[in-house]
Design a protein that fits this description.
heterodimer, A: about 750 residues, alpha+beta, seven-stranded mixed β-sheet, six-stranded mixed β-sheet, B: about 170 residues, five-stranded mixed β-sheet, 5 strands, about 15% strand
Chain lengths: ~750, ~170
């Protein structure tokens, strides 16, 4: 696409300046006149019935204005599938039992401490496999297997694929549950004006939050306004919790605005974690290297409630179903309830777990038949033509971004180029420089990724040109920190024809913004982008109508560029946008566009190939990533600098899942042991490796300006790339993450014993 | 209210961002709470409130301090600088300007803390090596993991400040 002025440039990120000066206000920074402070009583038991709550002491305390317990009428509202506003049954340690609002935080804390609760303690389960035993205590009425049966997905016939094979490799992989641990804990402020509710909250989608509140509170969406101030990130995890609902009910009871902020511990325990998983995978192949079958049996732990479990279970399948050309694939996914913190969405939503198992096993498969893992992937990765087989979905139906069927091509697919250019950058196949000391071992590994490319939900955007020349983009898409407003403003400016600085973004208010989905599934750039582009192009058309009248020239010879109406023929500026706008009859013109994103002919997917060079200290068991190369096909890159930031951040963040982070729930007590930054071990700047990002840019024909998804793909191949590099370094295939030093030492010792036994 | 739970309040003078402010603080209040609740300086963030994340970092007598780990009373007679106090009327501080140009942030919640740690580092050490930058910022967490861009931001700020100093 030649002649782009705004798209493709590393322009300054929207909102960053006010974040740097401290002016940016996040939810917990806001105060309302007369605002009360709320606190929540967490359950001390992993599984119990709340028999009674004596709140008389709390209610009599000075400063206390509201006490809310599961025995209140408003507590019974059901939301997010299986969660009540407050429940007389608690299902994990930290589950919310009751809430209070008081003049000060101290008074609220004392009121919470004064609540006398009688519990009837029930047996509990912390392990997913054990929770599925017939004799296990049911955590929800339908039992502990969500949906009552496994999710089955298949293409071809795996049994015949296994029969055809010369070799079958298999492995059982374990991924621990860990917290997204956004630095900003959840917070909400609620205010009532008669029966109208206004909520300021940590939000990644004001309309979705409004719908949630409406369901939970049993009131019409029209009476609810949700505002999303600056957002201290969530990586998907900041949804589906009770925070805003509790604030709203307490505020109604107290007749005063109420602010509820989760503590750091609450954010760890009552926030949302990544699903722990056990993945049993088989890859069947011929000696020639052709893959004949891939079978995947996955068990995920959704914790005490479902949250995003269904989506997670589905997305964990996709790597095995689609990353390698294979006629016979089968996925059997089970999702189990346990009495542990709730698992929800977290960057990659199941794909990092699924890809870890697949890409570690693919390395082993390559080794078994004596082919270099890079060569093996070049031979077998899925190409532009998609999977073998016949399309089964109706041909006029928008293709799912996670298809199972074969016979549908991709709109673009530069996976091969990602592998080739990434390998070159990491110097694949060249000897790795020696670490200098005999106990320090170095190695190189790789892994690839397939992920949804951006088509999500129906999206709407509105673009307004005011008579004073100001241009505004109204979008319901929340900038969750990834730079959505930057990218959408770049697209809007490009399509309308003004400078980036002239395009103001108005967002974060459910009363003002056109209806939008949540910022999720890496869909904002693609799905919202299509609507933004269309609305902006229509607005340009509207401006050209005005200009034609104003300049007394035919519209056909006019264009808008850089904030000016220009003559196409002479190529010169005729009038500024402001000048033309100043002459318009009304106060503004606007254009709104809604788009159902996607294609009926193509799968839109993003791709990546990652390469890690690691160093293993065989004395301490510590693994450090020395160098990292991340090559991505996300179509055209709208803002290269922000995109690099996104990739580097995604890789570094996922090194936590790979090497250090685990939220540990004690099997004996059900208590989560390490709900703090000190003990949950998120990566710090000290561990940050040298990361080189490569964009294999291609202009996807379906995508707005050719731009596909980028948010989550950087997190998907990281664990396998590192684990494969560790194998290259020390010759042990580790199958459990996080790969903490104790596991490394244990693995090395076991390998040594086995080697001695063989001798 | 019993004596044991009574909250003691004193009025103290706090010098914040060059201005002396009289503030009523409860004796158990942290400096972070005084800044945020009494002075409405919300640039310093509550990330953990227990000295683990660095989102509340401010400079006290030029040193980087977790504002959640110092009582407000302990800040009497000390010079406190918060992220709101760095920019001039018409120009960002070089650390802020460099962070803006190098894209050294994503969601921004950790950003004020990183800016203050970088500011304190560059006052003491105008030419830090990359290792020294990492050491100085190791007490600040960024969950977006924008660490690569933050390192570049501090390097660019150091260059700009040395140039300014001549």
């Amino acid at each position: 696409m030649a002649g782009l002025k705004v798209v493709g440039r590393s322009l300054i990120r929207r909102g960053l300046e006010e974040k740097l000066t401290g002016e940016a206000r996040y939810t917990a920074d806001l105060k309302l006149p007369g605002m009360l402070h709320a606190r929540v009583l967490p359950s001390p038991h992993p599984h119990a019935d709340v028999v009674s709550i004596d709140a008389s002491v709390a209610e009599a305390m000075p400063g206390v204005h509201a006490v809310f317990t599961p025995f209140d009428e408003e507590a019974s509202g059901l939301f997010a599938g299986d969660m009540r506003v407050l429940d007389t049954r608690v299902r994990f340690v930290g589950d919310e039992v009751a809430a209070v609002a008081a003049e000060t935080e101290e008074e609220a804390e004392r009121a919470i401490e004064s609540l006398r609760v009688e519990y009837r303690v029930l047996p509990f389960e912390t392990d997913a496999e054990r929770a599925l035993r017939p004799e296990a205590t049911a955590i929800h009425p339908g039992g502990n297997l969500w949906g009552g049966e496994p999710l089955l997905l298949k293409r071809g016939d795996v049994a015949s694929g296994l029969r055809e094979a010369d070799i079958v490799v298999e492995g059982s992989y374990v991924v621990a549950s860990h917290s997204a641990a956004p630095l900003e804990p959840r917070a909400a402020i609620a205010q009532w004006d008669d029966d109208q509710l206004t909520v300021w909250k940590t939000s990644r989608g004001v309309h979705t939050d409004r719908a949630h509140l409406s369901t939970a509170l049993g009131m019409s969406e029209e009476k609810i306004r949700v505002l999303g101030p600056h957002f201290g990130a969530g990586y998907g995890a900041k949804d589906e919790s009770r925070c805003a609902i509790l604030a709203a009910i307490l505020a109604r009871k107290a007749g005063r605005p109420v602010r509820l902020e989760y503590s750091r511990y609450q954010e760890f325990v009552a926030g949302r974690v990544r699903h722990g998983a056990v993945i049993e995978m088989k890859v069947a192949l011929k000696r020639s290297g052709e893959i004949t079958a891939i079978e995947n049996k996955t068990l995920m732990n959704t914790g005490a409630y479902l949250a995003s479990g269904a989506g997670e279970l589905r997305r964990a399948a996709q790597g095995g179903l689609y990353l390698y050309r294979c006629p016979n694939v089968r996925y059997e996914g089970r999702l189990a309830y346990t009495n542990t913190p709730v698992a929800g969405s977290y960057r990659g939503l199941g794909a990092p777990q699924g890809h870890f198992a697949l890409e570690a096993l693919i390395d082993q498969a390559a080794e078994t038949i004596g082919i270099d893992p890079l060569e093996f992937r070049l031979k077998n990765h899925v190409g532009l033509e998609g999977q073998p087989g016949r399309r089964t979905s109706p041909i006029d139906q928008v293709v799912d971004t996670q298809p199972v069927e074969g016979g549908i091509p991709f709109s673009s697919n530069e996976l091969r180029e990602c592998i080739v250019r990434g390998a070159e950058a990491i110097r694949w196949g060249k000897p790795v420089e020696d670490a200098g000391e005999p106990h320090m071992k170095r190695g190189v590994g790789m892994a690839t990724c397939i992920y949804r490319g951006g088509p999500g939900w129906e999206s709407t955007a509105r673009v307004i040109l005011n008579r004073d020349g100001r241009v505004e983009l109204h979008t319901g898409i929340v900038d969750v920190g990834q730079g959505a407003h930057t990218v959408l403003a770049q697209m809007a400016s490009e399509a309308f024809g003004c400078g980036y600085e002239d395009m103001r973004v108005v967002s974060g208010d459910s009363d003002v913004a056109p209806h939008s989905p949540i910022t999720a599934g890496s869909t904002a750039t693609f799905s919202a982008g299509l609507a933004v582009k269309k609305a902006s192009e229509n607005l340009r058309d509207g401006l050209l109508e005005l200009a034609s009248t104003y300049l007394e020239r035919p519209k056909e010879g006019l264009d808008v560029r850089g904030g000016f109406v220009v003559s196409n023929l002479e190529g010169k500026r005729l009038a500024s946008v402001s000048e033309v706008a100043g002459g318009m009859p009304g106060a503004f013109i606007e254009s709104e566009a809604s788009v159902v994103p996607g294609s009926a002919d193509y799968i839109v997917n993003s791709f990546a190939a990652h390469f890690a060079q690691v160093e293993v200290d065989t004395l301490t068991g510590s693994v450090s990533v020395v160098r990292y190369v991340a090559a991505h096909d996300s179509g055209r890159i709208i803002n290269p600098k922000a995109a690099v930031n996104q990739v580097e951040g995604g890789v570094s963040q996922t090194l936590g899942l790979t090497l250090s982070e685990e939220l540990v729930t004690d099997a004996a007590s059900g208590v989560t042991l390490n709900g703090s930054f000190l003990e949950h071990k998120c990566p710090t700047i000290g561990q940050y490796p040298e990361i080189q990002t490569i964009f294999v840019e291609t202009e996807d024909p379906i995508a707005p300006f050719g731009a596909k998804a980028l948010g989550e793909p950087p997190s998907v191949p990281v664990a396998a790339a590192v684990i494969n590099a560790v194998y290259d370094a020390v010759g042990v295939r580790f199958m459990e993450i996080p790969l903490t030093p104790d596991k490394v030492l244990e693995g090395l010792a076991l390998a040594l014993r086995q080697a001695q036994d063989e001798r | 209210m019993s004596e044991a739970t009574r909250i003691h309040v004193s009025q103290i003078s706090l010098k914040v961002n060059g201005r002396v402010r009289k503030v009523d603080v409860a004796h158990h209040w942290t400096l972070l709470r005084a800044l945020r609740d009494a002075l409405d300086l919300t640039g310093a963030k509550v990330g953990c409130d227990r000295g683990e994340c660095g989102a509340c970092t401010v400079a006290v007598d030029g040193h980087p301090v977790y504002a959640c780990q110092m009582l407000a009373l302990q800040a009497r007679d000390k010079e406190v600088v918060t992220v709101e106090g760095l920019a001039d009327e018409d120009a960002l501080h070089p650390v802020q300007q460099a962070f803006l140009e190098e894209d050294s942030g994503q969601c921004g919640y950790c950003t004020p803390g990183f800016v203050m740690s970088a500011y304190a580092l560059l006052r003491q050490n105008p030419s830090p090596t990359e290792g020294e930058i990492r050491d100085a910022l190791a007490g600040n967490l960024c969950r977006c993991n924008a660490y690569g861009r933050i390192i570049e931001g501090v390097k660019a700020a150091a260059d700009a400040m040395r140039e300014q100093a001549g």
